[in-house]
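Researcher: Batch entry, complex prediction.
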Amino acid sequence: MKHRSLVATLAVLGLLCALPPFLPRFYVYIASIVLLTGLLATSLNLAIGYGGLYQFHHTVFYGVGAYGTALMLTRAGAPAPVAMIAGPLAAALLSLVMGVICVRLSKLYFGMLQISLGSLVWVTVYRWYSFTGGDDGIHGVPLPDLIASAKGSYYYTLAVTALSLLAMRRIAGSPFGKTLQGIRDNPVRSEAIGVDVKRHKLAALVIAGFFGGVAGSLFVVVDTSAFPDMMFWTYSLEVLIMCLLGGMYTFWGPFVGSSTLVLLRVFVSVYTQYWGLILGTILSLVIIFLPDGMLGFFARRFRKGEVRGA
Amino acid sequence: MEFLSHLFSSGTLSQFLVGLSRTTILFIVSSGLSLILGILRIPNVAHGSLYMVGAFLAYSVIHLFGGGVAAFVAALVIAPLGVAALGFVLERGFFSHLYEREHLMLLLLTFSFALIIGDLVKIVWGTEYRSVTLPVVLQGSAEILGLPLPYYNLVLLLVGPVIAVFLWLVINRTKMGKIARAAAVDREMVSAVGINVGWVFAFTFVLGCFLAGLGGALIAPMTNISLGMDHSLIIEAFLIVIMGGLGNVWGALLGSLVFGLTQSLGILVWPKFGIVFPYLAVVAVLVFRPRGLLSSTW
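Model: Structure tokens for the complex:
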């Protein structure tokens, strides 16, 4: 089984490496966006799917990761590797601070406090023209030649996304990840058997924030820009939808959900300006009829088949 | 000293009163959201969209009746009722079957409705800005303590407390309100004693939507009616509801006042970053009183 999944992973990676020469420039860009959005959704899932934490404003970390990297490159003139790490670290730090404030609350209250803190960050970025560029954002971020072209940024995004997903997969499967799921399913019992619930939750938040920040810094590489809409509340809800659409209680679900949505949006936008209508309809149908998401649905069907066979 | 005299000049004070009257609209919309979240436990993201629909409906009604006081009053009645009817359809069609779902699912479901309603508004009313002019009677200014205050803002300042008292009476003094509060705490128990909880919930939801529509109709003459007015409002309304205490009408009033006052004061003190203060206030309240300023229904 382990052997098979390794082969599958290598096959997908090989396919993704071979893709760019056959695609027009625009689609290479879209492919990069698909990858980094998948990373963003997977990082959110670590908090919400594995940790059961109502991370309602995850894109704040995405935005801070992007601004961290973009500001280091434009204002500080820092070398690219430093900037690439600074963004995610800033996101992780913010996640720690917000986590310390929010973690004692549960469910809806946790989510709402996070929304208010996140909105505070958003409003500051949105208003601070002299530093963040306000609502115009930052454009034309200078990048090293190696990752400046569409193909270069694609391969960089692919490499970083693959490594990040691998790391998150390891984390999710580790004793820490299992404990986290235990806390999600029964916090009281976990506490009783001696698990430090708050510390585990906080760690999950910081990890999720860090990888959200990685996705943000990748966005700067791909799009050479950062803007406040990246961390507006409704975008957080869209990323939540991606997780839900693919299936929250699976590792790959959010990635599948986000790829589906990003690609669907690109193709639908050619034909109609009413993307919201389409997304809203799909989403409400999924919530009403398939609450486990696409992967959850297929997994269930598959398992049912197994049972019938046995 | 110069700063202080600027702060207490008549111009800034009347500006402050105008800001306060806008708080009324925040209160009306967020009290509706508070009912829906506190009693039905639906974090209704589509509430902002209903407010937007209310504003667009008011615009259409006023244009249909050709302006004037009668048209304006008609808009204030028809727009909220139209939104309430939409709410009734949503509740009976969808939410009444989904009350048992977890918050996250309901949040996303209402977000999907927000997306759908947003695009439907785009289809019906188009993407241009719309504006409504006040009837001539309401266009002047009154003098309050020697300060000029537009009549319409004065009306708003009076409407807010009236709505608050009305809601308090509905929730605390009517049978419907009492059942709704009981059902918020233990729904099964209430239905076990033979009360049809479904209709009480429908009533609560429709009342909440009516308030969203009323807020939209009232803001119509004060702003450009546009797509996107839902997104900026809904987040403020959510923060107010959480800050005040879920399902608590006075909490919604207090929350709106805190939010509105910190905003107007903040902009007076520090024009560039004044908008940050209400968010800071919400964070401060939630850090010290995570369940809100006043008691919540659950």
